[in-house]
Amino acid sequence: MRKIILASFLFFLATVFCNSAQAKTTLPLPRFVSLKSQEANVRAGPGLRYQIKWVVVRKNIPVEVIAEFEQWRKVKDMQGDEGWIHRSQLTNKRNVVITGEVTQVIHKYSSPDSLPVARAEPGVVAELLSCNQGACRVRAEGYRGWVRRENLWGIYPEEIVD
User: Fold this and answer.
1) CA distance 104 to 45
2) Which one of 1, 120, 128, 135 is CB 3.0 to 4.6 Å from 146, fit for a cystine?
3) How far is the C-alpha of 22 from the C-alpha of 12, rounded, in Å?
4) What is the pLDDT of residues 84-96, one digit of tens each?
């Protein structure tokens, strides 16, 4: 009988240890990630038993991870709304959203005086390729070029991306 109790206790400890080890990441908080799937439920809490606050229906949209609990990530969107998404719905691939009131110019080089490559409307999602102090290199709709970082959401003000 003691062996069964001891074995059950050891199994319990191993299960708790494995689950908590999977839940912890070495990634920094906060950080930006992107949605992996075309549709993701954003919940009021970290679990399926919590109500769905809203549904994101745009693949690759960036969100900011601000907290973690087991397999769940608390995220903040571009409007500042917060909720919980299962980590399987997220990817570490970096994307940004073109912001501003007017169409933004995508330049050939990081200098704002360089030749324009394309124009992007506010709300366009672009893949983040790299960033220096003043601009970020992006890929959007087959075009590659540089956008002033103050016209992007999904990158921290002082963050450098190689």
Assistant:
1) 37
2) 135
3) 16
4) 999 999 999 999 9
Domain architecture of the chain: domains with CATH: 25-93 (2.30.30.40), 96-153 (2.30.30.40)
In this structure, which long-range contacts are made by residues 23-27, counting pairs with CB atoms below 8 Å and at least 24 apart in sequence?
23/68, 23/69, 23/70, 23/71, 24/68, 25/68, 27/65, 27/92
Contact (Cβ atoms closer than 8 angstroms) between residue 88 and residue 55: no
pLDDT score at 13: 37
Q: How far apart are the first and last CA of the chain?
A: 59
Backbone angles phi, psi at 10, to 5 degrees: -65, -40
**pLDDT of res. 26:** 80
Question: Which regions of the chain are under pLDDT 50?
Answer: 1, 3-22
Phi, psi of 97 (to 5 degrees): -115, 135
